[in-house]
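README, section 4: Worked example with a bound small molecule

Sections 1 through 3 covered apo chains. Here we extend the same pipeline to holo records, where the ligand is supplied as SMILES alongside the sequence. The molecule in this example is guanosine-5'-triphosphate. Nothing else about the input changes; the structure line simply encodes the ligand pose together with the chain.
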Amino acid sequence: MNLAQSILEGNRLALARTLTLVENDHPDGQAALSELFSHTGKAHLVGVTGSPGTGKSSLVNQLARHFRHPPDGTPPKRIAIVAVDPSSPFTGGALLGDRIRMRDLSGDSGVFIRSMASRGALGGLAATTASLVQVFDAAGYELILIETVGAGQDEIEIARLAHTTLVIEAPGLGDDIQAIKAGILEIADILVVNKADQPGVENTERALRNMLELAHPTRRARFKEVQEKTAAPPAAFWMPPIQRTIATESVGIAELAESIGVHRRHLESSGEWQQRERNRLVSELQAVLRETLLQRWMRQVPDEVYQSVVNGLLQRELSPRQAVGQLLNGWLEDIGGEA
Ligand SMILES: Nc1nc2c(ncn2[C@@H]2O[C@H](COP(=O)(O)OP(=O)(O)OP(=O)(O)O)[C@@H](O)[C@H]2O)c(=O)[nH]1
Ligand SMILES: [Mg+2]
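The generated complex, written as structure tokens:
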């Protein structure tokens, strides 16, 4: 039996092996992905991002426990956790900490935890994360929690991958939330002020509210306008709620889980779920196309031609655009298209 079939039958070992193959961009991983693809598209992808140390892993752990043991008696969800480990010198210790914190979930066959090194992800961090998520989705994990640190380009791209993005803040990281960049706020579907047991929660919450107004001025104005007319928020608008939690004491977790569900229903009823799905698949298609064309072309161009153009660029004799023109000239037919 091949890997994809084993995964579909619930074999955890095959799942773990495939994840490694996919992470290493191994051809067997690619083959499994292709075979699994028709089984994807069911999972709810939830991104959890925010500055280092705000409590993302603790929250992910708590959310996973909540969804494994729903207090309202609904059937437990199968959960995958993808922790994209920071490898910067400042947060390098997080891996061990996360393992320890998440230990109480291990032994539960409905939970699968995967750590991923952010350095050395072949083919780019966001692309690799997207592939891992597809494997989990096909394997029948209904909720996939993806933890990333910070507000870099990679994190924003990973957040775009998610259906629902939680941005985690905590009091005391600079009263006016300098730690949070406007870019990350724009992708936030739910804002969480964790460590609500610490002083300064009100300040953090107020700062977030102000930034939210700045980030969504038109959306907010339009929201108010429609709300005044109809006395109910229209389904097509989503204003990110701000929620307080204390991850270490399980405070606010049920409410946060509820919000995640509400957001999912909003996405489905507004048609945004399909729209996000479409955007995601189209950009994946384009990324793969770009990468494939580049590699195919690089294999065909003689090394000395490439080097002489690079030299022309370094000597400022050619602009990057002229360099590309020169490189494509004569080699273009081989990849069957125009620039
Ligand atoms: N007081 C308090 N401490 C918390 C709370 N949530 C998490 N912590 C503590 O904050 C520290 C960091 O928590 P993590 O969950 O590792 O935070 P993180 O955002 O995943 O950290 P990185 O992955 O390193 O960015 C740990 O010592 C937690 O015990 C909370 O609600 N209140
Ligand atoms: Mg963490």
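What to look for in the output: The chain is about 50% helix and 10% strand. Residues 56-57, 94, 98, 147 surround magnesium ion (ligand 2) (CB under 6 Å).

Section 5 describes how to batch many such records.
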